[in-house]
Amino acid sequence: MGLQDKAYTLRNCKAVLVDSETVKLNVNVVIERGVIRAVGKESEGDEIDCSGLVVLPGLVNAHTHSAMIALRGYSDDKELRQWLSDVWAFERTFPRQLMKLSTEVAVLEMLERGTTAFVDMYFNPEDVREMTEKYGIRAQAGFTFLDSMFDPSEVERLQRGLRGTELFTPIINVHSVYSVSRETLKLAFELSRELNQRLQIHASETRGEVFYTKKNFGLFPVEFLIKEGLPEGSQLVHLGWIASWELDLLKNHHATYCPTSSMKLATAGAFPLYEAIRRGVNVSLGTDGPASNNSLDMFREMKNAVLQQRHNYWDARVTAKDAFRSATTGGYRLLGLKGGKVAQGYVADLVLLDADELYPFSPERLVSHVVYYTTGEAVKKLIVSGKIIEKETIRREKSRLVNEINESLSSLSYK
Amino acid sequence: MGLQDKAYTLRNCKAVLVDSETVKLNVNVVIERGVIRAVGKESEGDEIDCSGLVVLPGLVNAHTHSAMIALRGYSDDKELRQWLSDVWAFERTFPRQLMKLSTEVAVLEMLERGTTAFVDMYFNPEDVREMTEKYGIRAQAGFTFLDSMFDPSEVERLQRGLRGTELFTPIINVHSVYSVSRETLKLAFELSRELNQRLQIHASETRGEVFYTKKNFGLFPVEFLIKEGLPEGSQLVHLGWIASWELDLLKNHHATYCPTSSMKLATAGAFPLYEAIRRGVNVSLGTDGPASNNSLDMFREMKNAVLQQRHNYWDARVTAKDAFRSATTGGYRLLGLKGGKVAQGYVADLVLLDADELYPFSPERLVSHVVYYTTGEAVKKLIVSGKIIEKETIRREKSRLVNEINESLSSLSYK
Q: For the complex shown, is ipTM > 0.85?
């Protein structure tokens, strides 16, 4: 795309949602070499008319398992433990080509709905890297330590060979404390430190997990991870059953909240979002995988975060702005990038929505419409690292691949 | 639309979701005079190629306040009591023309997203009737007893003048036990019996309401309504705080569940869906108004029903099929119509979805995709009482009206 390197201008944007607090009307956004140079009256280079569009920061899907598109709708109406058993049975014979195809469709689906970056936990990070090159999305992914499925030394070997690029960053994935041995956990921690790659792990997702670590190690899951030497800056996902005093252990780590999946799997836990934010924990939002959500739409996820919080805690303290910040600034902080705002010096990762779909239109109602009303349906274009991606292009490509995925699945015995 | 009266055929539908249990592949659906004549190999009259479409029964939005589109995003981050106080302040000066315009946009938005019929509680039922004629959606609506806003005898007078049509049925709306006097309640009950119009009332929505009836009448809200002589076949909405023993009082009534709104308003109650179904209560689903949801998309509502149930009750007993039946057969039973299935003799109220958007495609996964994955975004056409409505037509019309609503609101002081 020729526009990528030289400066260009999103001209006369109907509104720019700079961050959760600020809306600018009828301004230009100047982008150069993947970074926002100005938001205001300035214009430089080619101009793109944005008078019918609302500009937001890109949304970060901070936790998913993209290849599980093939498993969407395969096992739904079960609690986590039984669901995981169904899923693992499928995964033991997951055809390699279908896994790649699923990741590709997931990437297109995320782009189509406004996700500019995602963090993936699965077994095919090279496919994820390939998709970042092919489609221009940002991603972090790595091989996953999961003892019942993979030899830990093999995971280590593969991970050592995984290289990063501008858009792709390797991370160390550990499924959970209950699915790896203490030795595997130590190995992953050491690898994370040695390679300077962030560690991501599911933690405190269920009561069963809390029971497991209490019984075996005398500690709560987060407490246990910290005591075992969790590398600084690790990403703990779910935390629906974290003890309130454990929140203070997260100061130097990142928390990722996946409200929809926790509700659908009846884990009954609700990450204490309000408390976590108040105590300064960096919180991001994730859809979790398409087999447990089953959507990858971060707009829906923002709404569901507020819904679960309000229902669980019997008050309206968590607001649309909290959800929005978690999906934007919280996500980019997790990624280690200056992003999540439409402001000078921030990475040019943006979502452009059809302004006609955000009604009644008023600057005061914009965050509300983004969180509570609209979905990825309203996305018209995305920009990732300054590169423009048109929704229609994504849709066409996805349509072709969906046919392939359908054919591929119909030849398997899984219904 | 010329096709309406003579028979026509939806030819070679990729899949027909007959009901929650049955999927038929590659069949025709023959429609004549608003009724489904056959689902199978038969063909009659003009043929419409449906090889890329999945056919479902129409979705019934069993409870909304359509005119509140103007209030979408106006007051979000508050609990019910404060929210209601904000909303009532707006409504006291709600311009009549804006109210009508809001209802019109809401009707288009519902059609666009697969709602073939809705039940409305507001102050402008004649506007609703006009929209049923203009756009072909089914609706039930009536003037609303709400003592702080309207003189009950005036509501009675207006209601007596409200006439039904093929698509529009008048109902008696009562806001709640806490917002009308006991005399108004009696008046509404008598009017419902005399005019043979179903009564709709919000009930057991909050702890505050339970406290109110207990304190003033010594009874729980549903118990109180029954003791006061609630007409048979009434519609009780919300019921988040219904006592389990009160469920048995609903045998001859209808329950409507609005999960999203109850979560967003932090009412903390969760209608006991599993128990209600098991005890034979007819359950329908509603989005509630666009100021408290803020979406009118029944696909999202089905998913949120499952999510709230599973989170609240710590198990996965409520399934996608329960949500689907509530939105289809439960809704049509409320309306008093033989509808909610794609089968011979049922009303031809159908939703046609883009099959490419339901992936991976398999008959076994169809209900899951409809409930957990897709949204109204996948709707391509609707059929109401045999009349075909194209999504693109709706969108064009809506786009024009949204501009009007934006202009109208910008001239008011409400932000």
A: yes
